[in-house]
TrEMBL record:
Keyword Signal: yes
Signal peptide start-end: 1-23
Keywords carried by this UniProt record: Signal
Coiled-coil portions: none
GO biological process, one term: transmembrane transport
Listed InterPro entries: DctP_fam, TRAP_DctP_sf
Protein name: TRAP transporter substrate-binding protein
Amino acid sequence: MKRKKVLLSLFVTLLLLSFITSGCGDNQQAGTDADNPIVLKYAFFAPANTFPAQQMEKWKEEVENRTNNRVKVELFPGGTILTDKNMYDGVKNGVVEMGLSSTTYEPGRFPLLGISDLPSGYPNATVASKVVYDLIQEYPPEAFQDFKIITAFATEPNYLMTNFPVSTLQGLQGKRIRISSSVTPVLTQLGASPISMSMAEVPQSLQTGIVEGIVTSREVLKDLKLVENLSYGVDYPLSIVTFVAVMNKNVWDSLPSDIQQVIDELGQEMAIWTGEYKDSHVAESLDWSKNNHAFELIRLSQDEIEAWNQVLQPLQDEYVADLQSKGLPAEAYQERLYELISQYSQ
Ligand code: 3IO
């Protein structure tokens, strides 16, 4: 009797063991070969044909190639999983492994980045992206402490685009103009009524007349067909918008070190690639908009340029002084900003 019982329990144990080991076979460590890749879901708030989403496609291609497909990247642009409102929190909470959003959309959360977003004389998106990428490495934002920063880049300096012609400050007073939220003081200084919203909401707001114009980079005239509601631009460079792509920290820590190395190598490369893509795309969009939609870029008179300079000039210094008085290294950051702009503009 007793012997039968022992045999039975031995049999049950062996059966369990075989279940467990076969289970292990299916769960073989991901990332060791292309048949069992590490899957990274990567989300963004705006449509797939916009430049930040094109950056994601390029990153996916490079990471998959350079890891021999041991990593598989799944892209979710268009706000399908996370929007600009919950992107970074969603990544932190593990809704997706990676997310791309704009620090400029979140006033107060990234105080030092707010300095480099204000008008600083960037010649184009390539220089702005290189500068912002370096600043983020040198001054890692506290709000990203629990994230791995994957890459960062920026727009070209943004321009005012409207459905009515603007050639003076006077003509802008009280107009409802969309801008991204951290840089609304730019429009307040110019005398307009700023309305902040995500780029994802811009097309409809223009169509329904909620706003009469926008401040942003000019590739969206073509990519989002905004030229259908915007006939004029003012040829005066304003603030930039900064983007940072992040990965969940636990996911990052779990990656094999050679895969981490591939991703780290791509950080600055992607900043440069995106800046260059963006600049060529802006040129193409402007040509297309002028030729197909009679879009007009208005040059300000010298007197007007001086008037615009005068109202905008104090903005950055005042903001820096405020942050400095709160104990942040704002002056050092600002100094480094101009050093990097001049270094990368050569
Ligand atoms: C942007 C955001 C999403 C898709 C395309 C885009 N082009 C420029 C931006 C930055 C932005 O939101 C802004 O306020 O200029």
